[in-house]
Amino acid sequence: MKDIEEKLTSSAAQKEKIRQRYKGVDIDELDVIPALPQANFYEDQREKRVAVYARVSTDDPRQTSSYELQKNHYQDMVSRHVGWKLIDIYADEGISGTSLQHRDAFVQMIADCRAGKIDLIVTKSVSRFARNVLDCIGYVRQLKAMQPPIGVFFETENIYTLNENSEMSLSFISTLAQEESHNKSEIMNASIEMRFRRGIFLTPPLLGYDQDEEGNLIINESEAQTVRLIFFMYLYGYTCQEIADTLTELNRPSKLGNTKWSPNSILGVLTNERHCGDVLARKTWTPSYLDHKSKKNRQDRNQYRQRNHHEAIISRDDFIAVQRLISNAKYGNKGILPELHVITDGILKGFVSVNPRWAGFKANDYRAASESVYDELVQIKSKEICVDQGDFDLRGFEIARAQFFDTVNKISLTISNDAINFSTLCIRKFNSQFVEILVHPGERCIAIRPSSKENRNAVQWSRRKNGAIIPRQVSGTAFLPNLYDLFGWDLNCKYRIIGIKKQQDDEAILFFSLQDTEVLIPTASINSTDDEGSTPTFDEDIKPLGTKTSVYAYPEDWINNFGNEYYRQAQLLELRTYTETGKWNSQADGTPYNPDPLQLTSTEEIQSGIASMLEEMKQEVQHEHKDDE
What we know:
The chain has 629 residues and is α+β, with helices and mostly antiparallel strands. Helices cover 32% and strands 20% of the residues.
C-alpha cells in the first residue's frame, strides 16, 4: 500500500511541474518580430514576369475562335494589372489535358520556370492546366518549391496556389476534372461499341478509295493501281524496301500526297484488310484514358469483322497469302508461303511436320491437320495382361520414372517459349546434324527423325566444337507459342520431357511423350511478396529440387506412385510400332494439308500485271515532265 501511495505522489508532482512550465512567461518579457504580411493577390503590385497557358482539346477549326479569345483575354488582363509583364503565351491546340504527351507548350513553360524566367502562371481553369490529378498537384508543388516560389492562378476557380489553403480546393477540383475526362472516355467507348455492333464503321482515308456523301468506300482507279502494284510485287518476291524505292522513283503519291515511300508505309498497305473488301474494327484499344497509349487488341476488347463490306481491289486469297508471307518474313523466311504437311501412314501417322521458323498457323491448324488422316478418332485400348507360365509375374510392380534420376545422361529435350534444347545423348542417337521435328496433338507426343539439310523443315540440332559434337539450340519463336497453346502450358515455364529411341532395321526415331512432363517453374514466380520483401513459399527444412532460378514440378497424380505399372509401361513402348500395315515407313513424306486451298493469282498473271502497270506509270511520269517543260 505504501508503494502505491509513493507512486501516486510522484506522478502528481511530475504533472504539477509540467503545468508550471507551460504557463510560460509574461508576454511583456518577449520581443515579437512580426512576419511580413502576405500581399493580397489582387492588390500585389510587385513586378512579376507572367506566363499565360491556354489549351483547346481539339484542332477543329471551330475551336480556333475559343483559342484566339483566350489569348486576347489574357493579353488584356496582363496589360491592366500593375507590375505584370507578359513573358509569353504558351498554347497547345488539339491536345488532351489528361496527359503531358505532345503538350509541347506546357513542357516548355515548365522548363522556362526552372530557368528562372517566370514568376507567375495564369490560366483559365484547372481543367485547362491538367485533367490528371497527379500532374496537376505534382507540378503545382514543384513550382511552389522553387526559389523564389512560382504561383499558378486559376481564374475560373479563383485559386492562387501560393495561398496556404489552396491545395485542398485544388485537389478536389482537379479530381472532378479528371473524372469528367473519365466519363467522356466511357461515353465515347460506349458510342463506338454501339456503332460497331450495328456495322457502322469508321472510314479513315485509305489509299485506293474515295468516300461518297454517305461515307461509303468507292474505288479510286488511279490509286488502286498503286495498291495492286504493291501486292503483286510482294507476291512476286520483292521486299518492302524494293517496292518503296520503285514507287518513290515513279513519283507515285500516297493518300496524303507524299511521293517518298518507306518500307513501313508499304507494310501498312499490305496489312490493311480493307483492300480485299473486308473491315476489321478495333484493331487497337486504349487501356488508360490518362496516357492515351494504344495497344494492339489481343482479344482485350470486342472486335467486329464484316466481309464484303465494299468493293475489293485485291482478291481475298491474294491478301491471305500476303499475310502469311509477312508473318513468315519476320523469322527470315522471305518469299516462302508456309504449308502444313501431315504423315498419312506408317509409324508416324497423324504427326504434323513442324518448321520452327514458320508463323501464320495456329494451334487448331496443327490439330486439324493431324485429325484429317483418320476416318475417326481411334482410342487405343490397353491389352489384357497375361503372364506366361514360368515367367516372373510383375503385376503390381512399377517402372520408376526417369525424372527421379539424373537426366543429364538421358534422352531429353527442354522446351521454353522461344527455343528447344536437346540433351547431348539425344544428338548421339543419330548420325545427322539435321533433324525434322513432328508433333501429334492428339497423342501429346513429339517425334524427331533424321533429315537432310535440303528438307525445308530441317533444323540443325548439333554443331562441332573442338572436334566434339555438341547440341545446338533450336530457335522456335514462331512455332513454340502454338505448342504451348496445344498442350495448355504456361508461357512463363520451361518443360523437360524424357524420350526413348525406337529403331527397326536402319530406321530410328526419338519419341517424347508429353504425358509425363517435368515443369521448370521460375523461382521468382512461386515466392510471395509482402511489405517486408520476398517470403519463400517453402519451409526452411524443405529443399525443392531444381536450380538457382527454377524449381522442378511434377503432375499431382505422381504422389501415389513411383511410375507406370510394369506391363503398362512395356505396352506403351510397343504402341508406336503398331500400324495398320505393319510397316514403319518412318521416312514417309508428309502430305500437304490445305482444306481450303487459296486461289491465288497465277505467277504469269502477276508478272505481266507488274510489267504493264510499271510501263503505264513510267509513261505518266514522262507526260508530267513534258507538261512541266
